[in-house]
Design brief:
By secondary structure, this protein is α/β, with parallel strands linked by helices. It contains seven helices and 19 strands. The chain binds flavin-adenine dinucleotide.
Length: about 300
C-alpha cells in the first residue's frame, strides 16, 4: 500500500516544519496545513539568540529559512485553517478545512499557542487601535511615541528591549515584583535611558478616543491608582493552547496542553501525535519544537514500516 498523502501536519511553525522535512526524507508525503505564515511565532520575534547555529539573527530570518527549506523539499503547504479533526471508527482521522473533508492515517498536531487576553476594561475596542501582541509587526507604528508593555517574562522584556530602540518611552508593567525573565534581558532593559519598570501594578483600564491614549494601573499592595499616557500597549502575559477544532476527548491535561509519550510524541490515541508548544512539555522553545517534530516523524515512519512488513 502506498503511504502517499497519509500524514497530515497541522501548523507550520518550527515543530510542524521539522516534522514535515523528516517525513519527506523518510519517503512519506505529508500534507501540511498552515492558517497564517510558515515559521509560526518566529515571524513575530525580534531576535533569536539561543537557537544553536543561528547567530545574532532576527526571528523573521529563521521563518523565511523554514519556508524556503520546505520549498526545497518540494512541500507546498495548504494555506487553510483546519476546522475539525475527529476519529473515524476504523482508527483513521477525518480532517475538515475550507469545504474539504479528507481522511488521514496519521495526524501531527503542531498548532502552537494563542496569546492570552488581558481582560482589561476597554480592551476589545482598542484591538488593532493601539493594543498589540507583536512588537516586531506593530512597533514601528509607534516610532517616537510612548508605549507600555505588560508582562514579566522573557517575551515581555525582549520585546520591550526592541521597542526601546524605536519608541520614545517604554513602561514595563508587571503585577509581580519577582520577574520571571532572565537576568540578561532585565539588565538590558535597565540599561536603556528611556525605560521604566512599574511593579507591582495591575493594568485595570485603558482609555482613548480613536485609539488608546492612556492606561490605568492599580498598585497591587496599596491599591492606589495611577494613569500613564501611552499611544501603544503591547501585551505579553502568556499564551494558551486553542484546540476547539479537536473533536476527540481526553487528550489534554488540566491546563489544556496535549499529553504525549515524550519519546514518540504519540498522544493517547494511536497514530495521533502532538508536537511543539501545544503539548505538555517543560520548555517551549524553537529547539524543543524542532526536536519534537523529528521524533514524531521518526515514530510515524517506524509505525508505518511495521505495518507494511
Ligand atoms: C515574543 C516571543 C519571543 C520568543 N523568543 C524565543 C527565542 O528567543 N528563542 C526560542 O527558542 N524561542 C522563542 N520563542 C518561542 C518559540 O517561538 C516557540 O517555542 C516556537 O515557535 C514553537 O513552535 P511551534 O511550531 O510549536 O508553534 P508556533 O510557532 O506557534 O506555530 C504554530 C503554527 O500553527 C498554525 N496554526 C494554528 N492553528 C492552526 C489551524 N487550526 N490550522 C492550520 N494552522 C494552524 C499557526 O498559524 C502557526 O503558524 C518566542 C516566542 C515569542 C512569542
Amino acid at each position: 500500500m502506498s503511504c502517499e498523502n497519509e500524514v497530515a501536519v497541522i501548523g507550520m511553525g518550527p515543530a510542524g516544519v521539522s516534522a514535515a522535512i523528516y517525513l519527506k526524507r523518510y519517503g512519506m508525503e505529508p500534507i501540511c496545513f498552515e492558517k497564517g505564515m510558515v515559521g509560526g511565532k518566529t515571524n513575530f520575534t525580534d531576535r533569536i539568540e539561543n537557537y544553536p547555529g543561528f547567530v545574532g539573527e532576527k526571528g523573521s530570518v529563521l521563518s523565511s529559512n523554514l519556508a524556503s527549506q520546505l520549498k526545497d523539499f518540494g512541500i507546498e503547504p495548504v494555506y487553510k485553517s483546519v476546522k475539525e479533526l475527529s476519529l473515524n471508527e476504523d482508527g483513521s482521522f477525518l480532517l475538515k478545512y475550507g469545504k474539504v473533508e479528507r481522511n488521514f492515517r496519521y495526524v501531527v498536531i503542531a498548532n502552537g499557542l494563542t496569546d492570552k487576553p488581558l481582560h482589561l476594561e476597554g480592551e476589545e475596542s482598542f484591538r488593532r487601535r493601539g493594543i498589540s501582541s507583536c512588537a516586531i509587526c506593530d512597533g514601528p507604528l509607534y516610532k517616537g511615541k510612548d508605549v507600555a508593555v505588560v508582562g514579566g517574562g522573557n517575551s515581555a522584556f525582549q520585546e520591550a528591549n526592541y521597542l526601546a530602540t524605536i519608541c520614545s518611552r517604554i513602561y514595563l508593567v508587571s503585577h509581580h515584583r519577582n520577574l520571571k525573565a532572565q537576568e540578561k534581558n532585565i539588565n538590558t532593559f535597565n540599561s536603556f535611558e528611556n525605560t521604566e519598570l512599574l511593579v507591582p501594578y495591575e493594568p485595570v483600564a485603558c482609555t482613548g478616543t480613536k485609539s488608546i491614549e492612556s492606561l490605568v494601573l492599580e498598585h497591587n499592595e496599596t491599591h492606589e491608582r495611577k494613569e500613564i499616557r501611552i499611544s501603544g500597549l503591547f501585551v505579553y502575559i502568556g499564551n494558551m493552547p486553542v484546540l476547539d477544532y479537536l473533536k476527540i476527548e481526553g487528550l489534554t491535561n488540566e491546563r489544556g496542553y496535549i499529553t504525549t509519550n515524550p519519546s514518540t510524541m504519540e498522544t493517547k490515541i494511536k497514530k495521533l501525535y502532538a508536537i511543539g508548544d501545544c503539548r505538555d512539555t517543560p520548555l517551549r522553545q524553537v529547539t524543543t519544537a524542532v526536536s519534537d517534530g523529528s521524533l514524531a516523524a521518526t515514530s510515524i515512519h517506524a509505525d508505518y514500516m511495521d505495518s507494511v512488513k
